[in-house]
Structure formats: C-alpha cells, structure tokens
Amino acid sequence: MRISNLPFVGLLLLLCGALRAQSGCPGCLIELPPLPADTIFLSQAPDGQAGQPYDGDLSFRMPQTTTPVAAVDSTVPAGLTLDKVTILSVVNLPPGLSWEPSQFEFNPSEQTDGCVKLCGTPLQPGLYEVSVIVSAEISLISQTANFDFDIYIAPAASQTDGFSMTNTTGCGSTTVAFQNLLPSNDQPGISYWWDFGNGQTSSLENPDTVRYDSPGIFPVHYTATFDTVGHLLTAVTILDVGCGDVAVPPIFNGNPDLFIEIENPAGDRIFKSDVTDNAGLPLGYTFLLPLDTGTYTLHVKDDEFLIGDEHCGTVTFSRSLHDTLTDGDLQVLVQVVHPVFTVEATDTVRVFPQPDPPLISPDSLPPLCDGQPVQLFASYTDGLQWYRDSSVLFGDTSDLLTVTLPGSYWVEYTSPDGCKSQSQPVRVEFIPLPSPPIFTNDDNFVSLND
Predict the structure, then answer these.
(1) Among 69, 85, 223, 267, fewest CB within 10 Å belongs to which?
(2) Does the reported pTM lie above 0.85?
(3) Structural contact between residues 111 and 30, judged by C-beta atoms closer than 8 angstroms
C-alpha cells in the first residue's frame, strides 16, 4: 500500500484497513517501531492460505493532526486537529476470517496507537478486495467513506508421508498440482501408482496437474513401491546328512566336521564357511547374500583331515526355488527373501458447488422520475452484498434494495462454502420532473401558459 498517493480520508481508512466488523479474536498486541508522536503507520498483514489456521496481529498509529497527512496530500490543510475516527464495518474479507480490534473509536488527541488480531481459517483462495467503512470527524464535520485494499489467500495445500498437493479446494472446479516427496533419483526398482479419485490414474513418478471439473470429495491414493534390495539369501540350515566320522568314545562322537560352499550361476565359488567340528544338527548359517537370476549350487562337505573332504551332498536353488531341498540323505533348508518396502498415503481434494449467479428483479427498468424510488429484489435471501457501480453499499445485505440514486446496481452472493457469484447489473436512471404548469386568469378566462 502506498500512503503518499491517498487523500486524507483514504489515509484514515488505511489505518483501519485490516479490520472486520465482528469480534472473536481477542488479545492483540501493539508492537510499533520507534515513531514520531504525530505520524501515520500501519504494519503489514501476512498472507494466508486456504484451509490453514490464520492468526496475526496488526499495529497502527493514527495522526494527531492533519500535518503528517498534508505532507503527502497537498489538498489537505496542515495543523487541523483530528477529533475522532470510528470504524463502522468491513466487507468482503476472505470467508472464514474474523477479527477484533483493541477499540472501535479513537480520539487521536488522547490515544493514537491501536492493534487488531485477525484469526480464523480462510475457506477459499484468491485475491480479495476488502472494503473498510469508516467515519472520520474533523471540527464536527463527519464523512463516511470506504477504502479498498487487497488480502491474498494462497491456494490450499496438503502434505502426507508420500506426496503433497497444491490447490486442493475450489469452487466449481480446481486444478491440483502434485509433488512426490519420495523421489527415485533415477534409482531402478522404484515404482509409483496414483489414483486421483476422479477416475484418473497414473504410474508416473511426477504426474501432471489434474483438473476436477465437478463438485465432490475426491480421495487421492498414492503408493510408492521400493524394490531396490533384490533377492537375498539370508539363511542355510543343514537339517540332516548321511556322512559322518568314525565314533571313538569319548574322543570322537562320530559327528561330521561340516562346512558348506556356494557357487554362483557361472560356477564361481562365492562363499565357503568355516569348518564346524563334530557338528550337531541342525546347523545354521546366516547371510545377506544378493542373488542374481539363475541357479546357485550349494555343496555340503565333511572335513576329513587324513583322507580329504567327504562329499555329503549337493542341492541347487534360485530366487524362486528354495525352501527345503534334498539330495539323498542330505536335507537343507534354504531361505531367500525379497524385501519390498511400500509407502501408502491418502489425502482429499474438495470441490464445492459454484453457486448460480443471483438474479435481480426487475432485470431492466425504463427511466424513472426523480423522487420515485424503485425496489430491487435478489433471488437469494442471505449471503448478499449490494453494490452501486464499483462502490459497496454499506449495510445493504438483504434481498431487498430500495434505490433512489441513478447508477448500475449489482449484488454478490457468498455461499456457506465461501464460493462467490455475481449478478448481472441493472441500470437505474432518473429524469428530472417537468416544470409545474402556470395558469393565467383573464376576466375569468383561464389559459395555460406555454
């Protein structure tokens, strides 16, 4: 906002421009930087976001005289005492916001500092042109006027463990942007599935924007599947063998001295265990050994110090063929796992009905005579605000408007969901009344003068 280009009343309105004529947000705090006593200052109000709680304080200082106003507006004489400013109303705040000022009336000769707390949850995004209605009083002369300023409410956004959305609410329709919070970074083995709730699906990592063209509640389902580890050999357990040593109690119990060897599909040995002397069964080995495609070979042997290794049996396994495998008396349990990590998340897109434009009756009028008021009726009974040309009509929020001034009249309707629609304008014109007739009496002969 630029103060330097505002007329005097506009400056006063600017000081009150973030207020709304209803309470519900108590406890604002006045926080002002070092300022001259007789000056104009208004702190900035933060932007908001639809669907997110809004809570913020604004602080302001009003001038004590017209001197600081005259410094920026040459049409205002300096040195006049500002008697009182009264906040009357604010219209067209973002639906869902409330406010409460530190006070409604200010006598700048006694107090110039004030604040307001804005709070609530904005329902719909948009750039709102807000009108503030104030009464400014100088030397017993009071003037009511309105001042317009903008409040920006960003589109609603949401975030889950897997994705975030922007522009998740709308009136009549909305176009939603999606962001994947678990990117693959080009790593293979990661896949995605999106169900947007409106009949559209996607397997892209980063889908395009999705448009929702009809009112409704649309659950969005997201699945990210991480198949990046592959197949792992995690355990080999020897359950039974047919080989063994000669028992010489109590020196030898006859149990074999077992070890295993594993070969990959190319025939290369990729693992050899240590020897377990006098092995008791079951005998287990644990691994985290990645497996490629193809067939692996597992040899079970008995370490014989004098005559060499004794072959106890051989089994083959693969990613898909494992579990309990046998070769004669040999029984081996081979455990292969394929860990797949899945993230599932759900959020919601909400599209509210776009209300039909309000209808004004009568929708057209012939020129009317001065002093002949006309009544305009709106097709809605509440949620209304009337306008004349581009100016808000303070207090005219019912379905009936009595018109006595020429202009283009229209009405705006706001639904309970915060969606807006506007009527077509109705032009009202008044023509001057004709001059009253003048009669002349000449010897009882009455004539009408032209």
Answers:
(1) 267
(2) no
(3) no
